[in-house]
TrEMBL record, chain B:
Residues 19-90 form the Transcription regulator PadR N-terminal domain. This is PadR family transcriptional regulator. It comes from the Bacteria. InterPro entries: Tscrpt_reg_PadR_N, WH-like_DNA-bd_sf, WH_DNA-bd_sf.
Length: 882, 112
């Protein structure tokens, strides 16, 4: 025999039992079972079960509730004097709704409290849901998104970064020599190109990111064309732009056939127009130039370049459906062996990164950490729980008022399950109301959120959201309604009718105490999170980074000719507010990173780490206030003749002291740049506090100075900035001026953290508000219950303060327990968060004490209003009736 | 007084009950439907129709024996009532008359 006999799905049978009139049930179910077993033999269990379920669903219709009369003459069958109505009978539902409505209207304050609390938390959940689904939708809209990958580099060197880019020729070789990919498309981005229209006034220019792309790139990605097709980029000197850019440059004229000038030195013709790029992709470029123009534009990107990787040179592939990723990745190893001569470069490993991972993988310039999304979702759930706790507390407290109703229903033959579901239905009404309010609130909060996040969410009614709303309403209903429903359904009818039920029959305060503690603990955790994250942010922004970031402005240098630069510098230096000017590749701390191989002295091979290069002139150290610990600064030169390295580099090279490093030869960039180490500078933070300090060398290298760093006197800041702009614009009339203070650039490191902090603060406030609502409801109820007790106490001479204490005592205890519960959880969560940081604050006891104090004061404030009010009532009034 | 109306599908189901001669219940009626008319309908529809027919008085029903494959549940066996057979006959008669009114050549009965 079969150990587990095949049976029709249980849920379907339950459904039939709930919906069918009792006298119909037996034979209908019998028929269905009979066919079911027949079908099991014919088509197998799975299909039969599905059919059974489908058939059962057909019976959910009012028709089958009734059919009491079986035929014109009753008496042919068993005569029915009283048939118990099936639970979901329309008449019963009508009755539940009526009773529910009356109850809700009778307790207006209770209803509003609940609706308001639930609506607040639901609104937050809706917003969180939309945000999370927005982020999860990134780059999933491409056709075949499951087969699109980006080739990324994980460098083999010890302290190297991984890069989202690959060698320039990698994509070409992979396409020509291997058949794994259906399509391979390279794309190289240049951020900050000046776009103009030849022959027009010089004011009509814009700074935009442009991408040099192969036609196949636009075939892989689903960026639909309004005019033209991907082949528009097959010839050199072509460009494809989005409608938005077309509008910006040419207004309402058709851009196709028009010419655009790039950086005042390259003309390209528009041969295609794309629809505007959707919000949920990280490929934000709106101008695609023929790939053939890349090398003329910047000759570093030549087709034989196997010696350097830029994160801006990326390659996308559309794998054939049957090709396993691991198989395709093997090709890269083979390509490395074949083409790369250099031992260090050969250590690079290449991987295929799924396109859906691009938005999240912080190793490859992702924008969003998935952990944050899960944390947010969890917070949303906690808020919902908090609101449901309120509901449960208030409802159980209210339950006694309904004892009579329950008693009568029971006497008339209601079953426990029916009463339970009836209460759930009432809760459902409140939940639906709350949901409607929540959608409204979410709608109003949306613009605020968009501003915070620099995104463009809108309440789009899609089936996902609707499904979420329905699921959320059901979840809230069950979470809130189950416990009070059980309590109500469990009343003993005799006691209920005699009015002899008391607090102890509704689970006393014990369950409610546990719930309140849980609620307060949730608020605690959020408060502690806020405190810790704020402290860490403050620490990272106010610590001394080892260089001057407050008074240095960075200006772009579009053209790098020695003569022009020295003119510019002398003009700048003449301004009274300018203290120093340095031409450099980047600030001491920057998200743009340049690394190269390094060989020391007379060792016979390159070190196994890459050294970060800061290419800059001799003014770099004084401009940024970098300190020397040994030797001297570099002298003026256009090419690398000597080096200054930092203390970390000294250690990494295995030199005992900075003094010993002086005079030793350093060879960087595969031997192209060499010279003695003339100085050692004190370490400064070149990364965010998440990353350790790297070995760094400072070297002269004209042609790489993309920035002009100007140290200004902050006293005359405004006038100086205006003068700088004027001078810059006369020197570079064809280009667009922009400036950025270095500390703003450093703040960019923590943009994501700032965002998370704002959110957690916001949600902490919401959680606290919801808890307060609940506490307020509870204390009001308690006060109402204890009117007589208070009256007697006062009559016997109790003072107001002792009455207030009577109420507060309990809540102080609860808050204390909540602190104890929340502390380890919060500590663990914050410890996890801080682990990402190399340089971090310690979690200290005062943080927990502070959050406990905050919570306690809020609780006492909430409680005191009601308890004082209760304590001040004249005892004559409250005792008169006896 | 209008006589009780018999819908097209109701008529077919009633015919099946007649054909099955006391052996008609949910399962057999829907099998017969499929077999004789090629119609595949959900159980809900069949039960629904049978209940309606009973309410209109065209069939009666009684609970028969249960079998193991039904989990011991009893069958509800249907029979055509006098009223039911009368209704069927009336419809049949009406059709005959109407057929007779159609001029030849318009609809050729097969086999002629």
């Amino acid at each position: 025999m079969n150990p587990r006999p095949v049976e029709p799905p249980r849920w379907a049978d339950r459904l039939l039992e709930a919906f069918l009139a009792p006298h119909l049930l037996e034979d209908v179910q019998g028929d269905l079972h009979e066919v079911f077993y027949k079908r099991v033999d014919e088509v197998g269990a799975t299909k039969a079960r599905r059919e059974y379920g489908w058939a059962a669903v057909q019976y959910v219709s009012p028709f089958f509730f009734k059919a009491f009369r079986r035929g014109p003459s009753p008496g042919i069958h068993e005569s029915v004097e009283y048939v118990q109505l099936p639970f979901f009978h329309p008449d019963m539902i009508r009755n539940y709704l009526t009773v529910a409505r009356r109850n809700l209207v009778r307790n207006k304050s209770y209803t509003t409290l609940n609706v308001f609390g639930l609506a607040l938390s639901m609104a937050c959940s809706i917003l969180i849901f939309m945000m999370v689904s927005y982020h999860l939708s990134f780059d999933r809209f491409h056709a075949n998104a499951d087969r699109i990958y980006r080739i990324v580099t994980g460098t083999g060197a010890a302290n190297a970064l991984s890069s989202a880019g690959v060698y320039v020729p990698m994509g070409r070789v992979f396409r020509d020599e291997y058949t794994f990919a259906e399509k391979t498309g390279r794309v190289a981005t240049n951020y900050g190109t000046t776009i103009s229209i030849p022959g027009t006034r010089s004011t009509n220019k814009f700074r935009e990111a442009i991408a040099f792309a192969e036609p196949e790139f636009l075939e892989i990605m689903s960026f639909p064309f309004v005019q033209g097709r991907p082949a528009a980029l097959a010839e050199p000197d072509r460009v494809v732009i989005t409608e938005a850019i077309g509008q910006k440059l040419f207004g309402d004229q058709n851009p196709v056939g028009k010419t655009i000038r790039l950086d005042n030195r390259m003309d390209v013709t528009v041969t295609g127009v794309l629809q505007n790029i959707p919000a949920n992709t990280d490929r934000r470029e709106e101008i695609y130039v023929s790939f053939a123009n890349l090398k003329p534009y910047n000759d570093w990107f030549h087709e034989e370049n196997w010696t350097g990787i830029s994160g801006n040179m990326q390659c996308f592939v559309l794998l054939k459906p049957t090709v396993p990723v691991a198989e395709a990745e093997k090709a890269f190893t083979a390509i490395s062996q074949k083409y790369i001569k250099d031992a260090t470069e050969r250590k690079n490993v290449f991987r295929l990164q799924p396109i859906a991972d691009i938005h999240f993988n912080l190793n490859y310039d992702g924008r969003m950490d998935k952990t944050n999304l899960w944390a947010l979702s969890l917070i949303g759930l906690l808020l919902i729980v908090t609101a449901c706790v309120n509901f449960v507390n208030l409802a159980t407290a209210q339950a006694l008022k309904r004892a009579k109703e329950i008693g009568i229903r029971k006497v008339l033959g209601s079953e426990r399950a029916q009463l339970f579901w009836q209460f759930i239905a009432e809760t459902g009404i409140i939940a639906v109301f709350a949901m409607l309010v929540a959608v409204g609130v979410a709608y109003l909060l949306m613009p605020l959120l968009n501003q915070l996040f620099q995104i463009d969410l809108s309440i789009m009614i899609n089936y996902q959201l609707v499904g979420f709303l329905v699921a959320l309403t059901i979840l809230v209903t069950l979470l809130s309604g189950s416990y009070p429903g059980l309590i109500l359904a469990g009343f003993q009818p005799i006691l209920a009718l005699k009015g002899k039920l008391s607090q102890k029959h509704v689970g006393g305060f014990s369950i409610r105490r546990v719930l309140v503690v849980g609620q307060l603990a949730i608020s605690q955790i959020l408060i502690i999170g806020t405190i810790v994250i704020t402290s860490q942010m403050r620490f990272s922004q106010q610590s001394d980074l080892g260089f001057n970031k407050n008074s240095v402005v960075l200006l772009p240098m579009p053209v790098q000719e020695a003569a022009k630069m020295s003119t510019l510098k002398s003009q700048f230096m003449q301004l009274p507010g300018v203290e120093n000017v340095s031409f450099c590749m980047q600030a001491p701390a920057s998200q743009a990173v340049n690394m190269t191989s390094v060989r020391f002295d007379n060792r016979d091979k390159d070190e196994d780490f890459l050294i970060r290069t800061k290419d800059a002139d001799e003014a770099y150290m004084p401009t940024f206030d970098l300190k020397l610990v040994a030797g001297r600064n570099i002298l003026h030169s256009d090419t690398t003749r000597e080096f200054v390295i930092n203390e970390t580099a000294v250690k990494a090279l295995g030199i005992k002291s900075p003094q010993e490093a002086l005079g030793k030869i350093l060879i960087t960039s595969k031997g192209r740049r060499r010279g003695p180490i003339v100085g050692v500078m004190k370490d400064f933070f070149n990364n965010s506090f998440r990353g350790a300090i790297d070995p760094i060398c400072l070297r002269a290298n004209l042609g790489e100075y993309g920035n002009c760093a100007v140290k200004i006197n902050l006293q005359s800041r405004r006038e100086t900035l205006t003068s700088l702009e004027k001078i810059w614009n006369t020197s570079f009339p064809e280009f667009i001026y922009s400036y950025q203070f270095v500390d703003d650039q450093v703040a960019q490191f923590y943009a994501l953290d700032e965002l998370i902090l704002k959110l957690i603060q916001f949600f902490a406030i919401i959680a606290i508000s919801i808890s307060c609502l609940g506490l307020f409801g509870m204390i009001s109820f308690m006060a109402a219950q204890k009117t007589k007790e208070i009256g007697i106490r006062k009559a016997l001479g109790a003072g107001v303060e002792s009455i207030v204490w009577l109420f507060s005592k309990e809540f102080i205890q609860l808050t204390g327990i909540a602190v104890l519960v929340a502390t380890p959880i919060a500590w663990w969560a914050m410890h996890r968060w801080l682990q990402d940081f190399v340089y971090k604050i310690g979690i200290e006891w005062w943080m927990f004490a502070l959050s406990g104090t905050v919570a306690l004061s809020i609780v006492l404030l909430t409680v005191s209003y009601q308890s004082v009010k209760a304590a001040l009532v004249n005892p004559v009034k409250s005792l008169r009736s006896e | 007084m209008r006589r009780t109306y018999l819908g097209e599908f109701e008529e077919v189901v009633l015919l099946m009950v007649a054909i099955l001669d006391g052996e008609g219940y949910g399962v057999t009626v829907s099998q017969a439907l499929e077999e004789h008319t090629g119609r595949i309908v959900t159980f809900g529809t069949v039960h629904n129709t049978l209940i309606r027919l009973e309410e209109k008085g065209f069939v009666t029903s009684e609970l028969g024996g249960g079998t193991t494959e039904r989990g011991g549940r009893r069958k509800r066996l249907f029979r055509v009532t006098a009223l039911g057979s009368k209704a069927l006959q009336e419809i049949q008669q009406l059709r005959q008359e109407l057929w007779g009114m159609i001029p030849p050549k318009i609809v050729q009965l097969s086999g002629q």
